[in-house]
């Protein structure tokens, strides 16, 4: 009898132990998890300067700045201008308020932005079409230059976006190893820099570059055609690039290997031409964005010529709008009219479209 009771106790202890072990195993694989996410505020900032000469003598006329433009954090095109109303409220007020508004010149008037004016307290955040500052005229006059009475307004326009990262699932009891960051771009950059296993030569002007045929074929349909057909380049494994600055090609080469162009801001026009020639679609899009964000009255006609010549349709459309809205500010307009009459016709068409959009609609009876 005692032996029978002893065996039952042993089986009971073993059963309890097995249940506990099973519970632990189940919890480790299917139990609660810590979930982590991160919200980060991303910004894209533009600084605009508006100089109004002899501001102290202007008392009634409303003033409008040139049209500024850029892109949001997501790459969406936005254009805006500033409107200054010299007197708000009663005309007989000794120290009236001056109203400074931001007007949206593109179709996304609901785009949110943060607006600040250097030297003045307060900031606006909301839809750009509703931005307004009211400042006492006497205070603004204090900012005018004592030499010529000009007023310089410096604006800071910030487009923001809250970006959510995650969620990253981290098991409290899991021993899963965190994966290292990809080193693909770094590895390809080193492959190019060290001239490892190169099998083709590229001659540009007085310089010679070593590269890899497989990378060129994978990245560009134009280079692929050179090597996959019985052309001279395929037979000799040598390419000669005519009519290109070696420094520009060096940046093209960097993009082919790393998908990045470090000198894009100062080579946007030249890289746009190269991107179109060698069918590098992403590089072409990067050039369009760079030229679009940096467009001014001084660069607009050159940008339009390049956009038309190298089939950058979005850039061309936005530049036409910019010139149509700022025609009086274009410094080389007469010379441009003589050199590019076909583009002048398109600019005039764009001006006409703008007037039609602003014209009141007549209801039919």
TrEMBL record:
CDD domains per UniProt: BACK
Domain of life: Eukaryota
Domain BTB: 198-265
Pfam family, one: BTB
SUPFAM superfamilies xrefs: POZ domain
Protein name: BTB domain-containing protein
């Amino acid at each position: 009898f005692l032996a029978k009771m002893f065996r039952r106790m042993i089986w009971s202890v073993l059963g309890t132990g097995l249940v506990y072990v099973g519970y632990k195993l189940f919890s480790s694989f299917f139990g609660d998890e810590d979930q982590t996410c991160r919200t980060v505020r991303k910004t894209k900032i533009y600084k605009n300067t508006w100089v109004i000469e002899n501001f102290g003598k202007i008392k009634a006329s409303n003033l409008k700045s040139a049209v500024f433009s850029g892109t949001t954090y997501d790459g969406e095109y936005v254009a805006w201008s500033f409107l200054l109303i010299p007197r708000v409220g009663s005309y007989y007020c000794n120290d009236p308020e001056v109203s400074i508004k931001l007007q949206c010149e593109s179709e996304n008037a609901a785009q949110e932005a943060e607006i600040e004016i250097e030297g003045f307290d307060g900031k606006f955040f909301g839809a750009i079409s509703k931005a307004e500052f009211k400042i006492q005229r006497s205070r603004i006059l204090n900012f005018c230059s004592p030499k010529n009475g000009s007023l310089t307004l410096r604006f800071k326009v910030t487009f923001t976006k809250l970006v959510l990262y995650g969620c990253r699932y981290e098991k409290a009891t899991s021993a899963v190893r965190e994966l290292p960051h990809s080193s693909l771009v770094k590895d390809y950059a080193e492959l190019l820099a060290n001239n490892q296993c190169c099998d083709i030569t590229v001659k540009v002007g007085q310089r010679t570059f070593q590269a890899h045929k497989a990378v060129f074929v994978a990245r560009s349909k134009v280079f692929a055609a050179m090597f996959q057909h019985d052309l001279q380049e395929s037979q000799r494994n040598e390419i000669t690039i005519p009519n290109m600055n070696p420094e520009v090609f060096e940046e093209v080469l960097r993009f082919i290997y790393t998908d990045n162009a470090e000198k894009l801001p100062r080579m946007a026009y030249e890289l746009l031409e190269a991107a179109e020639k060698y069918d590098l679609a992403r590089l072409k899009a990067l050039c369009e964005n760079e030229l679009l964000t940096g467009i001014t009255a001084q660069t607009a006609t050159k940008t339009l010529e390049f956009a038309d010549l190298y089939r950058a349709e979005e850039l061309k459309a936005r530049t036409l709008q910019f010139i149509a809205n700022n025609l009086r500010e274009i410094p080389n307009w007469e010379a441009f009219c003589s050199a590019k009459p076909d583009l002048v016709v398109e600019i005039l068409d764009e001006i006409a479209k703008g007037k039609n959009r602003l014209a009141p609609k007549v209801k039919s009876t």
